[in-house]
Amino acid sequence: MRYEAPNTLEQAIALLSGANGRARVLAGGTDLLIQMRSGRTDPELLVDIKAIPELTTLAAEVGGYRVGAAITCMELIENAAFALAWPGIVDGVKYIGSIQVKGRATMGGNLCNASPAADSVPALIAAGALVCIAGPQGRREVPIEAFVAGPGKTTLAGGELVASFLLPRRSPRSGDAYLRFTPRTEMDIAVVGAAVNLTLDNKGVCSHARVSLGAVAARALLVPEAGAALIGTRIDAAALAKLAAAASAACKPIDDKRGTKEFRIKVAGVMARRAAAIAMERAGRHS
Amino acid sequence: MARNHVSATVNGDQVEFLCETGQTLLDVLRDELRLTGTKEGCGTGDCGACSVMVDGRLVCSCLMLAVEAEGKAIQTIEGMSAGEALHPLQRKFVEHAALQCGICTPGILIAARALLARNPDPSEAEVRFWLAGNLCRCTGYHKIVDAVLDAAREMRGA
Amino acid sequence: MSTMLKYQEKELKIVGTRPLRPDGVDKVTGRARFGADYNLPGQLIGKVLRSPHAHARIKSIDTSAALALPGVKAVVTREDFAEMPDEMAAVGELMINFRDVTRNMMAREKVLYDGHPLAAVAAVSESVARAALALIKVEYEILPHVIDVVAAMKAGAPLLNEKQYTAGVKPKPDHPSNVAKRLEYGHGDLAAGFKQAEVIIEREFNTKPVHQGYIEPQACLASYSADGQAELWTSTQGHFVFRAQCAKVLQMEVSRIRVTPTEIGGGFGGKNNIYNEPLAIALSRKSNRPVKMVTTREEVFRGTGPTPGANVKVKIGCTRDGKITAAEAELNFQAGAFPGSPVNQASMCAFTRYDLANVRVVGHDVTVNRPKVAAYRAPGAPIAVFGVESVIDEMAKKLGMDPIDFRLKNAAKEGTQTYYGPKLGPVGYVQTLEAARAHPHYRAPLGPNQGRGVATGFWFNIGNETTCSLNLQEDGTLTLMLGTIDVAGGSRASMAMMVAEELGVEFERVRPIVGDTSSLGFNFLTAGSRSTFASGMACVIAARQMIEKLRQRVAKIREVPAEAVAWKDGRAQPADAGVAQFAPMTLAEIARMGGKTGGTIAGHAEINAQGAGPGFGAHIVDVEVDKQTGAVKILRYTVVQDVGKAIHPAYVEGQMQGGAAQGIGWALNEEYVYGDDGILQNPGFLDYRIPVASDLPRIDTVIVEVPNPNHPYGVRGCGEVPIIPPMAAIANAIENATGLRLREQPFSPPRVLKAIDDAAAAKG
Which of A31, C74, C90, C647 could be stapled to C287 by a disulfide with Cβ–Cβ 3.0 to 4.6 Å? Predict the structure, then answer.
């Protein structure tokens, strides 16, 4: 197995393209090393992308943010401006493993590992993020909810990698939140994850809402009916009950060692409701 | 199998070593550099016994390849005391009986020191959440938390 | 000298204080060396090939391709190990059969669980060793498997051992069975007792296997010399027992193996058994180089013993005024692939907290296609007590009695005849219960969705063979060589404290170390909460022997009769000024003259410690249940325990807190998850969920001291009792919070939420 650490995106793309599918991108390595150790993957070449400046830069752009795919979770959490704008995305990032894991793990890796339970993905979907992809054919952008194809599978073509995430401008009176359910307080894979991103108008009525669920289907879901349950309301008990029902109805979960179908369906509604309450409270603070 | 040549700094000393691409930083610290204070408890980043600092960042050395250490400054438990003078955290752990078997202790000390560098006055909850990535099976964490809070107090001069 | 040194109340200077432990600095600096920290020049790396099937006959093993791989220096299979006879040996509190030991370390006819070893290689590096394993070709004939204990007991279940007939049944059965043994304890007239009862409660409980969860995986380093001597470094709870077992399975003389125990990163009973040690020695013998074998975490889960899962039935009968008239239990324990679950110990501990006239416990030891179980801190007792203390709680509630008062009304005391044999000596159950009842925790207010539970535990504790050697050095300092392993509890410090107390010198003057197997006579392994009791007894005997010799030596030096010399305040002094006066002598002064006056002065002891005192504990726990998700949060936890005498209170507190934490994990989230295919699905710390720091609150401790009359300082063991009550205490607290009784462990959120939802559906 060879290791390369290119300094430019072009070099990285060339290495990946030339490896005929036998290369893997190495960002934080917190999923890849475990998969190599267990024999699940056996690459010939590792392309370490952490030395490419574009991938480790976070900057304001067109009123929003461009977040390099290889920025570590800890760096993201420590970025005060970003945490103020997108606390829900930071909620998700904070749940990725331990402090140690967050010292290496990246949002790009969390997305491309394509676990249905990935903690950073639902809030990115709720935020309306775009994934910016670079490859031998050039660049393209994809809404994040369309990026993952299924467990362990992305829609990246040969030689392509995720360069950055683009987050839109934040309207005033907006707030987002991500909550997940795990048996322990930390260190678990999400059994259910729910993200809510919403905007209130100047009368306190919800004008915009996006809701996304993780760990309840083959990939993280955007749930339009759940968002619709909040729009036009003051996010009262009735709206929240509708939201919870829509969330539960959207689930297509499996039984596995982390939770039963029944449990996931039930708790998805509970988590969505609680996340909405937090998002609303944050929106209220953000005038 | 051609090996990679790596230069790095460990506990302030310049080191050079050869490693296979698949070897982790943990493997190399223990087996090439013979710094066995850093432990393997799981190999999958779930227990924190392999915690080290890399360029000032707390990480699991089992989740980092040795080749990624090129040019980096690494700190392990062996560098925590200054000669015979123990770090206040180390002293408090012994005073509070915050260790029993001691296998998790190096990882917890490295993690606790990283916490106090960032937040010199943590609450009990903050200590517990920061240390959630360090498993201990012997103590139930009670005396560990007491030792960390007491060390923080001393380091603040309070 | 008698091994029964009786308790003597006296003023204490060192015992009961909190000096710093001698191994502390090494452990906080990373200098302490555990199993995987040892290396020898030229060493090879050993790795094990494990069965991917739950049950299969091994038709053939072809290692030729592995042997041919460059860098591979040796391969072993069943061909390299002799057949062993049916022969039992004690391993801690459990018994093992050598016929099974050799098969568990390396399969012979069959593989019996996912993870069962069947070959091992030694190679120049880890990556070559792993590549070699992949080249070993095994032909399996896959057999149907059984992993559920109730299913395994039924006629027609797949059989693990066609030659196993249930022992303890008369007449001897004519069909083989997975039930290896049936046992029964009891006394009185059960039928009459239940007839007398005005309230009867009968319940069934099920638990899953849980692992000891030591953070250090097993590791060993073996070096076999061409002259037939082997050196072995290993992380173990009992190096003498390991030596004995390795010698047996390798057909070597015991004294040809020298085992050095490394520091041990947690054991809890799980490191009472040999796993890779004989393989490493055999590989070293074959390759003529040292062989290091370090287990991965996945191998720890797949290949080392968890504690059994079980099915438990409990029936208790009571009069309306709260007197238990009859108690019955059936304990069906999974033994794993070979017989030997702790169903015996569980049976002994199930009801012993209560003074019962009519009681019966029946136990079954059942083989299933899972790893062979190993001891786990009070083996078996937490499982039985989960059932019994849950029913006790239900009974108290039904009778309208306070849970502690109900237990006090039926409490075992000094003189209570147990149903498994002995009569209890002085014990502290009543004192423990009263201390719990008086604790502010018991009266603290509770909020919505919060509940409180109480449960108690008993463990008999053991003594067994122990040796030690105490030597006076030329400068008056002392080295204490121990043979009983310090499994983290800080026992090295406690031993040195007792010696310092006896001799009247400062604690720092006594340096304790644990010696290797060539340095001392046989010591039993550290289990059964025995080390402070038995090793402590041996140390006190050695210290008193040394004092005798010091007095004789001073008498000679000062030319006075021996009776005129007393040992007081760390010096030889005149016993009575009227009889004979002489200048006192310190240890240093005596030592300096040692050579000239007869030689080095030493004390030693080789005993089989008897008279271990049973321990009792009572736990109080507050929980909060999130009724929408089933999550259970532990709000507050208090451990009250009679330890006889806390030699070093901080280490005793540590045992109480650590045992409680393990019990909490056992109650809430820990379990082995198997698929229907018999394959373990969660062999790692991600999905085998032990408590993390943010899962637990502070764990408050109350040390009760009712001295054990059979130990000079009154010591009872303390390490095991604290893991026994938590499961029941938490189940009782959940019931108190929600009205729902959980009888399936763990009380994970999906189970709790289902119980909540089912109850709500039944109501409306």
Answer: C74
Q: Which residues pair with C34 in a beta bridge?
A: C263
- The predicted pLDDT at position C525 comes to 87
Last residue of a domain, one of C585, C609, C633: C609
Sort out which chain A residues have CB atoms less than 8 A from B54's CB and list them.
103
Using the 3D structure, point to which of C303, C324, C359 is the last residue of a domain.
C303
Pairing of strands C602-609, C615-625: unpaired
The domain in which residue A43 lies consists of 2-115+130-167
pLDDT at C46: 98
Residue in C682, C686, C694 nearest the CB of A185: C694
Residue C353: inside a domain: no
User: What's chain A's Rg over C-alpha atoms?
Assistant: 19
Q: Do C569 and C621 sit in the same domain of this protein?
A: no
Q: Which chains touch B (3 or more CB pairs under 8 A)?
A: A, C
**Per residue in C686-695, pLDDT tens?**
999 999 999 9
Task: Report the amino acid identity of residue A133.
Answer: I
Q: Which of residues 190-209 of A touch C (CB under 8 A)?
A: 191
By the 8 A CB rule, do A246 and A223 touch?
yes
Residue of B nearest to A75 (CA): B57
Which chains would you list as touching C if contact means 3+ CB atom pairs under 8 Å? A, B
Task: Tell me, yes or no, if C488 comes closer than 8 A to chain B by beta carbon.
Answer: yes
Q: Tell me, yes or no, whether A213 lies in a domain.
A: yes
What average pLDDT does this structure show over B73-80? Answer: 98
- Judged on CB neighbours under 10 Å (0-12, 13-18, 19+), A136 is middle
Q: For residue C567, what pLDDT is reported?
A: 96
Number of domains within chain C: 3
Whole-number Å distance between alpha carbons of A177 and A94 = 12
Interface pTM (ipTM) of the complex?
0.98
B65 touching chain A per CB within 8 A: yes
- Count of alpha carbons within 13 angstroms of residue C178, beta-carbon side: 28
- pLDDT tens digits, one per residue of C114-173: 999 999 999 999 999 999 999 999 999 999 999 999 999 999 999 999 999 999 999 999
Tell if the CB–CB gap between A34 and B134 is shorter than 8 Å: no
Asked, for residue C552, whether it belongs to a domain, the answer is yes
Interatomic CA distance for residues C497 and C515, integer angstroms? 18
Q: Does the pLDDT of residue C1 top 60, yes or no?
A: no
User: What's the mean pLDDT in A132-146?
Assistant: 97
> Is the pTM value of this prediction over 0.90?
yes
pLDDT of residue A157: 95
Q: Which segments of chain B does DSSP mark as H helices, in order?
A: 25-27, 88-95, 105-118, 124-130, 142-156
Domain that holds residue C68: 36-145+212-303
- CA atoms of C508 and C477, how far apart (whole Å): 9
* C residues 14-43 closer than 8 Å to B (CB): 18, 20-21, 23-34, 36-37, 39
Chains that touch A (3 or more CB pairs under 8 A): B, C
- Average pLDDT value for chain B: 97
Report CB contact under 8 Å: A186, B114: no
Number of folded domains in chain A? 2
> Are residues A100 and B129, on separate chains, in Cβ contact within 8 Å?
no
Q: Is residue A121 part of a domain?
A: no
| Averaged pLDDT for residues C629-658 | 97
**Residue C335: what pLDDT?**
97
Contact across the interface for C693 and B36, Cβ inside 8 Å: no
Pairing relation of β-strands B73-75 and B4-10? parallel
Contacts of B36 in chain C (CB under 8 A): 30, 33, 36-37
**Contact list, A29 vs chain B (CB under 8 Å):** 63-65, 68
Q: Are strands C179-187 and A64-68 parallel, antiparallel or unpaired?
A: unpaired
The two structure tokens encoding residue C246: 């390795």
If asked whether residues C112 and C256 sit together in one domain, one would say yes
- Which domains, from first to last, does chain B contain? 4-79 (3.10.20.30), 88-156 (1.10.150.120)
User: Judged by CB atoms within 8 Å, which residues 31-50 of B form the interface with A?
Assistant: 43-46, 48
Does residue C731 lie within any of the structural domains? yes
Closest-approach residue (CA) in chain B for A45: B21
Assign residue A213 the CATH number of its domain: 3.30.390.50
A221 plus A161 within the same structural domain: no
B139 to C32: CB separation less than 8 angstroms, yes or no: no
